[in-house]
Write a structure and sequence with these properties.
Elements (H helix, E strand, L loop, with lengths): L1 H17 L17 E11 L6 E12 L4 E10 L6 E17 L3 E14 L16 E12 L2 E12 L15 E14 L10 E13 L5 E13 L3 E13 L8 E10 L2 H5 L1
Antiparallel strand pairs: 1-2, 1-12, 2-3, 3-4, 4-5, 5-6, 6-7, 7-8, 8-9, 9-10, 10-11, 11-12
Length: about 270
């Protein structure tokens, strides 16, 4: 009986996590407590001003302190100098402050804060502390899961600082912005669970936008994605990002994502 109960718990967790692991946005849910997740984020975006593509490698490590609090560390590496160049890194914490759970659905809300440092040149009006700007971001996320569909939205304030030591933030462009996202995810396969080792296939559609608070310049992008989850532990993301509208200078708005994600569960239990 105990094994049967654990099986259905695992299936429920798999359903929840598989539909809430978005590609370019974070849901209100956290990495499970005492678990360590590694994410190798990769992207290749087509340059607008010059020829070629800009490749970014951004590995992340996330640890679940408890069910409500997680922390993350990131590194930023790119080929803007025509070779792999370590530009900087960042830290992030997310706290889930509200949870309403039901048998086939739940609703969660979380607040987060992020700080990043970067030493690369400042080459666009868009503010992006994940890989481009030194600065900080704070925001709130709400996520609703209903059976096989997840809907998540976020709103945040982002502030850019100088990229020390050589690149002060320009005086002629706005240094703070409001960010907003809306993400949809649906479990497409399997139609019915028979084992937690089954491969999951999720389809996702994410909208990501920003408005510079000083001058009102904005952009909105769309990100369709397909996601594969193996053995409830390993994950592969493939996504394409396309600019829908924009009134600001962006050096490389369109491109592809390829992410590899792996989670080690119950670390403390394993060590004991």
């Amino acid at each position: 009986m105990r094994n049967v109960i654990l099986f259905f718990v695992a299936i429920s967790c798999q359903t929840i996590f598989s539909q809430e692991l978005f590609v370019v946005t974070d849901p209100a849910s956290n990495v499970p407590a005492n678990s360590l997740a590694f994410n190798v984020m990769q992207s290749a975006f087509k340059e607008q001003i010059k020829t070629g593509y800009n490749y970014h490698l951004m590995p992340e490590i996330t640890y679940g302190i408890n069910k409500n609090l997680m922390v993350r560390g990131s590194a930023f590496i790119s080929t803007r100098t025509n070779a792999l160049y370590a530009e900087g890194g960042g830290v992030m914490a997310k706290y889930r402050f509200y949870s309403e759970d039901d048998l086939n659905s739940h609703f969660r809300m979380a607040a987060y804060g992020r700080y990043s440092f970067n030493r690369a040149d400042i080459h666009q009006e868009q503010i992006e502390i994940l890989g481009h700007n030194t600065g900080f971001e704070t925001g709130i996320i709400a996520t609703k899961l209903l059976k096989k569909v997840a809907i998540s939205a976020s709103l945040s304030f982002e502030k850019a600082l100088d990229n020390k030591p050589n690149y002060p933030f320009p005086d002629n462009i706005g240094d703070n912005a409001t960010n907003y996202t809306l993400s949809f995810g649906k479990l497409m396969y399997p139609k019915k669970y028979t084992s937690f080792k089954q491969t999951n296939i999720n389809l996702m559609l994410e909208f990501v936008g920003q408005t510079i608070n000083e001058n009102g310049k904005s952009y909105v992008d769309v990100v369709p994605a397909i996601q594969f989850i193996f053995n409830s532990q390993a994950r592969l993301d493939l996504a394409y990002r396309q600019e829908l509208i924009s009134s600001m200078l962006r050096s490389a708005p369109n491109g592809v994502y390829f992410n590899l994600y792996y989670t080690f569960f119950n670390l403390k239990k394993q060590n004991n």
